[in-house]
Amino acid sequence: MGTLFDEAAAGGARTVVHLDRPFDIAPRSGTRWTVTELAGLVRATAARLADAGVRPGDRVAIVKDNHWDYDLLACAAVRLGAVPAQLSARLDTADLVTLLERLRPAALVTTSAVLARCRDTAAGEPARILVTVDSAAPGAVHLAALDASRPRVPVRRHDDEPLVIHHTSGTTGVPKLVVHSTRTLVHKLARFEAVRYPGIGIRPDDVLANASAYGHGRTFCWTAVVVSLAPTGIVVLSGDDPETADPLLRAHPPTVVEALPASYIRLRSLTTRLDNPFRDVRLYISTYDAVHPPALRAYLTASRRAHPLWMQGWGQTETGPLTFRFHTRRSSLAPDAETTARRLGRPVPGRTRLRAVDPDTLRPVPRGRLGLLLVRTPALALGYVGEEDRWDAKRVGDWWSTGDMGVHHRDGSVSILDRAADALPGMSCLRTEDVLEQRLPQALECVILGAPDGDPLPVVVTADGRLDRDAWKQATHGLPALHDPAVLTWDEVPRTGTGKVRRAALARQLTGTAPAGTGRWT
Question: What is the distance between the alpha carbons of residues 238 and 257, in angstroms, rounded to a whole number?
Answer without folding.
Answer: 14
